[in-house]
Amino acid sequence: MPLSLQSDQPHSHYVFVFGTLKEGFPNFERNQGVRMPGVFKTVEPYPLLLVGERYSPWLVLAAGEGHPVIGQVFCVDDVALAEMDALERITQSDGYRRLEIEVANLDSGLKQTVWVYGKPTASLLTADVRVELEGDYLLEHAALYCHRPHS
Description:
mainly beta; five-stranded mixed β-barrel; Hypothetical upf0131 protein ytfp; 36% strand; 9 strands
């Protein structure tokens, strides 16, 4: 029987999380991925902000500005990626956008291309920026975070 190139298996995607989806943080229960070993940072610097009365963490898609952002990488399947897309509201005008960036493992130095959820720079025009972080969203920042009300 010949091997088929088609597969019923879901695809794997690597997602870099820098805020509430990190292990031990407020939205981690919504993250259905398998964590890759190590701590990662973006190869390019990006602004990392706490925005609005909810203190939502925003990675602003302005490569070259801000600081390298520290986070975790998770391997997710198609279903888990779709759930993350819904949580990050990528189809909404005020939602995040998912795009590929390069991150480096702080232990090994190895680089890989991963998905990240970030805010377009145009979002800053109306943003209520509360805090500018130096690249690392910590538990003390997560303590300020308020979940979005269910609609």
